[in-house]
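Hello Y.,

Per our agreement to keep a running log of every chain we model this quarter, I'm adding this entry. I've kept the format consistent with earlier entries: sequence first, then predicted structure.
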Amino acid sequence: MRYDIVFNAPTAAEAYEQAPPLAEESATVAGLLRELEPEHRPAYLGTALPSEEREVLLRRAACADRQWWATRNAADGLAAVAVGFALMQFDQSHPDEVGGPIGPDSVEWDAEGGVQAYVRQEYQHWLTVPPGCADPCPEADPCVWHAR
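Predicted structure for the entry above:
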């Protein structure tokens, strides 16, 4: 018996619609990665916070996914799955950092393409929903962003 699981993860086009150009985002991620390295991090900042590590990992995973969509190259596809899987593992260890509606340990992501779908869900949420927003906000008490 076979069960097909249907869920509402964004497509690549939807997830990356508002994203900066891939080359620009890749350069930004490279700079952020460098800033996380202890030898390049100002002492007053201390050790990187999980939220900082996650942002870099999420943006790396999105760049890898976008690269694969641009090339459809098998090596790029493997790289996208590897970085996306690393994001999922990180999120399972840091559930308070997860933004999207479907958590990293949900069965929805077990299907083929599930890792990339998880990356797209999380990137779209990161890109479009402000930090601290419950999304959806309660109508009686919306966050500043949703009150606009």
